[in-house]
Amino acid sequence: MPRPTRKRVEPIRTEALLVRRVPVGEADLIITLFTEARGMMGAVARSARRTSKRFAGLEPMHLLRVSLEERAGSDLALLVEASIAKPRLHLTTALDRLEAAGRALRWIRGVAPPGTPEPGLFCTVNDLLDALDVAPPEGSVNAHLATAGLRMLGNIGFGLVLDRCVHCGKPCAPEATACLDAEAGGLVCRACGGARLVVRSALRARIEAAAAGDDAAILAEDAQVVVDLVEAALSAHAAPAR
Questions:
Q1: How does residue 73 score in pLDDT terms, banded at 50, 70 and 90?
Q2: Contact at 8 Å (CB) between 156 and 121?
Q3: CATH number belonging to the domain at 12-86, selected among 2.40.50.320, 1.10.10.10, 2.40.50.140, 3.30.450.20
Q4: H/E element holding 105?
């Protein structure tokens, strides 16, 4: 009786960002990739620390082109090869840009679901890394990060509600100062307990404009406040560390 032929599984070929790498054994790596085709994926890179021929540029920040084989019974795919699709060499030359990029990748790692394509999120983080690679003006690095963070919240369906109370739904006039609780998802009116952070109407308008697509809305003096808001909101929705 002829032996049944094993069906060949086509490898997954996709662009990706490296968000985590852990050395294993003498030469292997366990990596986490945020891929365009499958969202977050874990993979084994055999002998990646011994040879760079098949895994050129397997570093964070660059946009990679990877080939992966899924393995039956395992949560980890096998990384067949990796190459750089778009290098971001300038990004790594300045500590503030490098730190901003690293923070964004940590955000992505915390909120992107495994095995689920997130095209908006993939586009947002790559747009940020491209912007940081072009040597942004002095003082604007955090503004780029803040703007991208607001859009990440929108990409995952948790954009901040800035026109009404998230608890009772009471509208907030555009010109009014308001209490903002990022972990709750937006404004909290005083009748519902308010929040420690009070934002003026002008900042609220700039946050809304940035989330809607205005790259220049967030000012340098806004940036740290907005980054902290994004961090708090993303942390409230982050998955357990992987």
A1: confident
A2: yes
A3: 2.40.50.140
A4: helix 95-111
| The pLDDT value given to residue 2 | 60
Q: Is residue 5 predicted with pLDDT exceeding 70?
A: no
CATH of 91-237, one of 3.30.1120.10, 2.60.40.1190, 1.10.150.120, 1.20.1440.120: 1.20.1440.120
The single-letter code of the amino acid at 158 is: F
CA separation (Å) from 23 to 4, 47, 98?
A: 38, 10, 22
Q: Are strands 197-199 and 178-181 parallel, antiparallel or unpaired?
A: antiparallel
Over range 3-23, report the average pLDDT.
81
pLDDT, tens digit, for every residue of 88-99?
999 988 899 999
Q: What is the DSSP letter of 228?
A: H
DSSP string, 107-141: HHHHHSPBT---HHHHHHHHHHHHHHHT-PPTT-H
- 65 vs 84: CA distance, rounded Å: 6
pLDDT in tens, 148-168: 999 999 999 999 999 999 999
pLDDT at 1 (0 to 100): 56
Question: Directed axis angle between helix 119-133 and helix 95-111, to 10°?
Answer: 170
Contact 17, 33 (CB under 8 A): yes
From CA 166, how far away is CA 158, in angstroms rounded?
12
